[in-house]
Amino acid sequence: MRLQASLAVFLVAVCVGCGGDDTDDVEGADAASDARSIQVRWPASYAEELAAGVEIVVTPASGPPVTLVTDAEGRASVSLSGAATVEATIDLSEARVEALTGHQGAIELTARGSLATGDTTLALVLDGPVLGGFLIEEVSYTGAAGLEEGDHYFDDQFVEVYNNSTHLLYADGLLLADVHGSAGAINPGQPVTPFAADLEHVYVNSIWRIPGSGSDVPVPPGGSIVIAHDGTNHQPQSTVDMTDADFEAYNMRADNRDVDYPTVANLERVRFEGGFDWLLPVFGPGVVLLRGDNVETLPTADTGFSDATKVPLSWVVDAFEALMDGDSVTYKRVPAALDRGFVFSSGTYVGESAIRRVRTRIGERAVLQDSNDSTMDFEVVTAPQPREER
Ligand SMILES: [Ca+2]
Ligand SMILES: [Ca+2]
User: Does CATH place domain 4-9+22-125 in 3.20.20.10?
Assistant: First the structure.
């Protein structure tokens, strides 16, 4: 609500040059009235700032609505007095969406606002549907060579999760899990996953949850969170320093075989199948990012030597798969509906990492490739790149 004093100043200002006309008229756009300027911006994550070609409908408190279209500066002007509501709308073609966001799909953007009596300007920011979502950006699973011949250092494993979307997203409540099954014929006669015929579920070993009540872990577009096996500095055995990880998998045990690093917040352990810590297979893991309610109630299935949790595909936010080598396709564990392909490293304890490719850039922000095919979407690089600008 404007103060009366500023309204008076405004009326004096607009009356300079109005030749003594009566400006008390509030009957709408036809009457001698006030110039009002509306400027429309794209959402902050878009490639451009000022939104041209936006249709604006200004509806005065009394009188008919007026339709305008924004110019190259995102501006439209109208002359009317009194209060009015303002609605901005634009339909974006697939090509325009691609250019502005790096995502696919035709969408409608809208904004609403109001002009109080005396307001001369109105700034609107368009908004629309969330395009894109959380993606697995990097899975560093191979382990490192360590310092001495024959060392097998794997405590440096981490997973990085990226907000590939147009909107701020919250990561708390996201679940991270490793998919049951072998990465290849590590030993002669190694069986493939017993669940290969079930294309409707993904079967996972351990499940971890990012803690919070739903709005505690904000991740902006282009931002990421790093989830460490152990939240400590792994140098010099590895190139990886996880002291600034956002979360770590702390597997609390009576014998304290896993360390709770004090500066790195712990994931919530929902289900655990394994040994001392959450070890991803160094031969190649399947990793899924999940979201769903009441995870504790999901059924389990007997794998022959452990229990795997049976997760509906609808829970899967994103999936990644690595296998032992290029010949291990029969060992694929992640259903093709989630991920048609896989990557593989040059070996184990080689200090490599699987990292998602950049599809395009919107300003400084990388939009990562997501074709639901790890073969196409990931590359194996010679050194892990936690938090590296993409
Ligand atoms: Ca740990
Ligand atoms: Ca900790």
Answer: no
- By the 8 A CB rule, do 331 and 184 touch? yes
Please report, for the chain, the start and end positions of each structural domain, with discontinuous segments joined by +: 4-9+22-125, 134-381
Beta strands in 32-157 (DSSP E): 35-41, 55-60, 66-69, 75-79, 84-92, 107-115, 121-125, 134-140
Q: Which ligand is nearest to the CA of 155?
A: 1
pTM: 0.89
Ligand nearest to the CA of 158: 1
What is the whole-number distance in angstroms between the Cα of residue 153 and the centre of ligand 2? 20
Residue of 199, 219, 218 lying closest to 310 (CA atoms): 199
Let me know: does 112 contact 85? Beta carbons within 8 Å: yes
Answer yes or no: are the C-beta atoms of 285 and 267 closer than 8 Å.
no
| 3-state secondary structure (DSSP) of residue 330 | helix
Rounded to an integer, what distance in angstroms lies between the CA atom of residue 159 and that of residue 278? 12
Residue type, 266: N
Q: Which residues of 312-333 are buried (b: 16+ CB within 10 A; e: fewer)?
A: eeebbbbbbbbbbbeebeebbb
Residues with CB under 5 A from ligand 2 (ion): 260-261, 264, 266
Q: How do residues 218-268 score in pLDDT, each as one tens digit? A: 999 999 999 999 999 999 999 999 999 999 999 999 999 999 999 999 999
Question: What count of Cα atoms within 13 Å lies in the side-chain half-sphere of residue 320?
Answer: 32
pLDDT value, residue 321: 98
